[in-house]
Specification:
The protein is built from twelve helices and three strands, in the order E-H-H-E-H-H-H-E-H-H-H-H-H-H-H. It has 321 residues and is mainly alpha-helical. The mean pLDDT is 80. The chain crosses the membrane at residues 23-47, 59-76, 96-118, 138-156, 195-217, 238-258, 270-290.
């Protein structure tokens, strides 16, 4: 056990004090992290290399994969290292950076999912105006707005959260610096500003959720009027994976952040934190690739021997120049 009396950091309790369970947790998290890393890097690579996928939908999907890759890298590697070293200590600086990037990337993910739902709405409900509305310039501005919104949210949360004095022991019953758990360490009646910031963030997330719901209500009402069964299947194959990702991520995060805090640590806290920090970045590449014929075709093309030989010859020619 780390002595925190002479240190300014925090102690992350993680999943267990038992050494065998700590090693098992580290191995499981390592496998999950490598799967998420390879899956998201593969999607980014496929979309970048295949010119058939240079459309707004896949442009946003590439940024979602990059967000997922960064998002899972904020918490999981630190947790793996702590479990392997049997040391849950995290310094104040590391905790500040973790909170900032976690909130910023989570907010950006909600924003990009909202943009993706709008993209699907325009493509299905206003197909004649799609290229005009979702032009490359508009797509770039949307992505810039997504990253800026995430950065502002992360900076605001981090500034307010770490300006609140702490009265309890600096022990966090989580595997990362989780804001709801950290609020339990604050002095009584001293976290009004953080509640105000959390209320603003929650309201923004709720507006995004309403926008997504309205987009899909319009989408499904339009799809049901399509006479061709093949056409309906094609639309559902692109929309349902996105809807599943949105529902899973927002419901898990909403349950954790909106439910009343408890004084005693709970296994439910750890379970739901995994649901919105670890599982979505790992499952997103599988969901989007398995349900998408264009992605599967592009993957086969990229992994084919002919394509690989062409890429190899192109790289050699570049080096000769």
């Amino acid at each position: 056990m780390v002595n925190l009396t002479s240190k300014s950091g925090f102690l992350l309790m993680g999943f267990s004090d038992d050494r065998k369970f700590q090693v098992l947790h580290a191995l499981l998290f390592l496998v999950i992290y490598l799967l998420a890393l390879m899956g998201n890097l593969l999607i980014i690579t496929i979309i970048t290399l295949d010119h058939h996928l240079h459309s707004p939908m896949y442009y946003f999907l590439k940024h979602l994969s990059f967000l997922d890759l960064c998002f899972i890298s904020v918490t999981v590697p630190q947790s793996i290292a702590n479990s392997l070293m049997d040391n849950g200590y995290i310094s104040l600086g590391q905790c500040i950076l973790q909170v900032f990037f976690f909130i910023a990337l989570a907010s950006s993910e909600v924003a990009i999912l909202t943009v993706m739902s709008y993209d699907r709405y325009v493509a299905i409900c206003q197909p004649l105006h799609y290229e005009t509305i979702m032009n490359p310039s508009a797509c770039r501005r949307a992505v810039i707005a997504v990253w800026m919104a995430g950065g502002i949210s992360g900076l605001t949360h981090t500034t307010v959260n770490f300006s609140i004095p702490l009265c309890g022991e600096r022990v966090i019953h989580q595997f990362f610096c989780d804001v709801p758990q950290m609020l339990k360490l604050t002095c009584s009646y001293e976290f009004v500003n953080e509640i105000a910031v959390a209320a603003f963030t929650t309201s923004t997330a709720f507006i995004c959720l309403i926008s997504i719901v309205l987009s899909y209500v319009r989408i499904f009402s339009t799809v049901l009027r399509i006479p061709s069964a093949e056409g309906r299947t094609k639309v559902f194959s692109t929309c349902l994976p996105h809807l599943f990702v949105v529902s899973f991520f927002l419901s898990a995060a909403g349950f954790e952040f909106l439910r009343p805090p408890s004084d005693s640590p709970s296994a439910v806290d750890l379970m739901f934190s995994i649901f919105y920090t670890v599982i979505p970045p790992t499952l997103n590449p599988i969901i989007y690739s398995l349900r998408n014929k264009a992605m599967k075709a592009a993957l086969k093309k990229v992994l084919s021997k002919e394509e690989f030989s062409q890429r190899k010859m192109y790289v050699k020619a570049m080096f000769k120049l």
